[in-house]
Amino acid sequence: MKHMKYRADIDGLRAIAVLSVVIFHLNKQWLPGGFVGVDVFFVISGFLITSIILRECSAGTFTMRNFLVRRIRRILPASTAVILASLLAGLAFYDAESLQKLGAQALFSCFSAANVHMWIASQDYWVLDAESNSLLHMWSLGVEEQFYLVFPVVIMLALRIRKCGVVLAIGFILSVIASWYMLFNGKFIPFNGSIAAFYLIPSRGWELLAGGILAWYFETHPTTATISSNKNAAKAKSLIALAGLAMIVASFWIVSLEANFPLPWAVLPVLGTCMVIYTGTSQRSSLAFRFLSNPTFNFIGDF
Questions:
Q1: Cβ distance 35 to 268 under 8 Å?
Q2: Torsion angle in degrees (nearest 10) through CA of 116, 271, 16, 142
Q3: Residues 262, 264: Cα–Cα separation, whole Å
Q4: What string of DSSP letters covers 50-109?
Q5: Is the pTM for the entire model greater than 0.90?
Q6: How confident is the model over 260-273, as pLDDT tens digits?
Q7: Is 234 exposed, middle or buried (0-12, 13-18, 19+ CB in 10 A)?
Q8: pLDDT of residue 8
Q9: Which parts of the chain sit beneath pLDDT 70?
């Protein structure tokens, strides 16, 4: 399996995801659905991580230790700096009650469980503000870190029984069911079902797995990523990419704080992201690819 080529369009998607979340927290009126940038990022992470695992397993070089060490090296320095800076700022500006809440957030964040803390404390994302909750964004990192711990084992077992696609599909379906149940009928979910649906990996896993399924499809159908000589096929893929990008951008305004989330509204940015990733390698001349590959977006996305 060949090393995955650099995807400038994915860095562009990262930049859009980051910028949308930042703008949302600066002023919710500017970008009412900017929080869905997290969903875009989940799909990207699922795609990239699955691609890495599948490629290394195929080459016989994958080890859980090396995988986790690379994740730790990439995440730990920045997350540690953010936690320490937030605590120092809290000591200077927060009152005793706010500082106590910040300390609890910091502690859970150190153990990759910020999302679990938000759920247990029933901290509704919709009513929290970033100014008084400086570690609010760590919940999504908690979801990803928990994914890193469990997902490689699932992939290795799935590859051993030669049912990787089936396992990914089953996981996706179960996560959708869990998300829907927590959100609309979570009477047996402790604390708060709708808050659990927003923060926890069982209800968010389908977004990461959407990217994972796409990565598995690329690895098992390598010609998908090749540039088509058929003009009609090329035009169709260009339109798919543009439609996917439009879905992502539209979700920033269509989705609102009052929406049921993550389902069904997260489908819009998740599907849009999958469409862009699917077409990116084979249609580098498309309008969507050229837009996402501009140097400014690439700088932000690779930062």
A1: no
A2: 10
A3: 6
A4: HHHHHHHHHHT---HHHHHHHHHHHHHHHHHHHHHHHHHHHHHH--HHHHHHHHHHHHHH
A5: yes
A6: 899 999 999 999 99
A7: middle
A8: 86
A9: 1-4, 128-132, 224-230, 258, 281-285, 303
Neighbours of 154 (CB within 10 A): 17
Nearest to residue 132, comparing CAs of 84, 160, 182, 93?
93
The confidence score (pLDDT) of residue 285 equals: 64
With left for phi above 0 and alpha for psi between -120 and 50, is residue 226 left, alpha or beta?
beta
86's CB contacts (< 8 A; 6+ apart) are 102, 106, 134, 135
> Which tokens is 8 given?
């400038």
Burial 210-224 (b: 16+ CB within 10 A, else e): bbbbbbbebbeeeeb
The two tokens of residue 22 are 């930042």
Place of tokens 């029984």: 161
